[in-house]
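writing this on my phone so excuse typos. first protein, seq and then structure
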Amino acid sequence: MKNLLSFIFVALLCLHLSPTSKATDSNHQQSFEYATIRWSGRDNTHVIRPNGQVEFVGPQLAKVKRIDRVDDRAFYMNIVMNALAKEGYEFAGISNDEIVMKRAVH
C-alpha cells in the first residue's frame, strides 16, 4: 500500500511538472523557430521554412560560380547558410544531408 501511495504521489508530481501542462499556460511562447536546409544536389537543394513552405534554391545556386576542386555540397550549403544568417538565423544542428538553423521569435 505504501508503494502504491508513493507511485501515485510521483505520478501526480510528474503530471504537474510536465512540459505539456505548461504548454497550455497562456504565458507560454515559442522562443525559437527553425528552418532546415536539405541537400539534394545543387539543382534540388531546398529550405523548409518554419511555416512549412518549401523553397527550392537551385536557381539561385546556379548563378554562383564554384571554384574548381571545391566540394559541391560544402560550397553550396555554405552559400545557403549565409543567406539564412542574413535573415537572423544561426546554426542549430547538422545531419548527413540537412542543416538546421534557428532564430529567436520576438
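second protein below, same order as before
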Amino acid sequence: MGSQSEERRLYLPGNAWVLALSAAVWSLGGSIASPYQSVFFHTVGATPIFIGLLMAVSSALTALAQLVGGYVADRWGRKKVIVVFSFVSAASAWVYIFIDRYQLLILPVMLASVAGIYGPAFSALLSESMKPELRAKGVASFTLVSSLPSVFCPYIGGFLMTRFGTLPGLRIAYFVSGLLGVIGVSYRAVRLEETYAGNGVTREGRLRDIILDTVNSYVEAAKQMSSGARRLLAYSLTASAGSGMTASYASLYVIETLQVQAQFYGLLTNMAGIVNIIFLFASTALVKRAGLRKTAIYASLSVPVGQFIFVRSKGMNDLATWTVLGAAGSAFLGPSIAALQADLTPKEARGRLMALFSFFPLVLAIPAQILGGYLYENVNPLAPFLASLPIFVLAAAILVGIKEPESVSG
C-alpha cells in the first residue's frame, strides 16, 4: 500500500518545482493561442506553402539557437541563459497582436526561434535537479504540474474566435499568452538556482576564434556520445521528419477541411490534455516495470497508429479516438525519451548534447515542413499525413536497437 502511494506522489525537487510552476503559469496563456497558430497564419493571408516555409525558417533559426544555447549552458552555466531568453520567448507573443498581413509573420517567428537558446540549459537543469533513477518520474511530474492548469484553455481560444471573430479573438489570446508568460518567467527568475557553474569561459579574441572554440567544443562533446545516444538521435531525426510534415497543418485541416468549429477543436485539445495527465503516472509505473527502452518503444508505436486514424477521420468520433490515442502515447513517450537522453549523456557535456538532440532534428524538419506545405496545397490536404505514416513506423523500429541504459552520474 505504501509503495503504491509513493508511486503516485509527485517528484519535483527544488528547481524542478520552480520550472514546473513557472511553466504552468506561462502555459495558461500559451494554450489559448498556440493550438490555432496555423489558423492565425492562414487568416492573415498565408498559404499552406508559405506556412511551411515560415516553419522551416523557424526550425533553422531554432537549430542555430540550440547550438549556441548548448555551448553557453556548458561554458557559463544554466540559470542566466534560461532567465534572459525565457523573457524574450514570452514577450514574442505580443508581436502577433500587431500583425495584419502575412509578410510580417516572420518577425514574431524569428524572435521566438532565437529565444530557443535557453532550451538546452532548461533540459539540462531540469535533469540535474533530479536523481538519475527518478528522472522518468520527475519528467512526468513536471509535465503534470506544468500542463494541468491549462487543460481547458484551448477551448477558451476557440470560444474567443467564435465570439469575436478569428483574427480579433486570436489577438486577445496572444495578449493573454504574453502577459501570463512574463508573470511566469518573473517567478522563474527570482526562485531558480544554478546547478552547474560552467566549465570555463570562451576564448577571448576575434569572432573566428570564438566560432572555432564553439565548433571544437561540440566535436569534443559528440565524441562522448554512446552508441545508444547515437541511436536515440537517429530516432529523433526520423520522428522529426514525420512531425515536420504534419504538425503545422492538423488544426488547419480539421477546421478548414473537415469544417469542425474552432471551439470544438479546442475541446479536442482539452481532451488531449486530460488524457495525457491521466496517463502520466501510469507511464512512471510502466517505466518501473518494463524499463525506459520498452516504454519508449511501445509508446512510439502509438504515433503511426494515431496518424492512420487521423487520415480516416470523418467526424468528431474519429477525431476523438485520434486525440485520446495521441495524448496517451505522448504521456508514455515524453518522459521515457527525456530520461533516456539524460541517462545517456554525461553532465559535463549535457548542455551541448541536449542541443544536438534538438539541432539535428530541427535541421531535418526544414525540408519536411516545406514538403508538407507543398503536399497540402498542391496535392491533397491529407497528403502530408499519409506520407508521414511510414516515417513514424521507421522511427519506432530504430528505438528497438537501443539497450537499456545505466544512469550516468549527475
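The chain has one domain: 12-399. thats all i got for now
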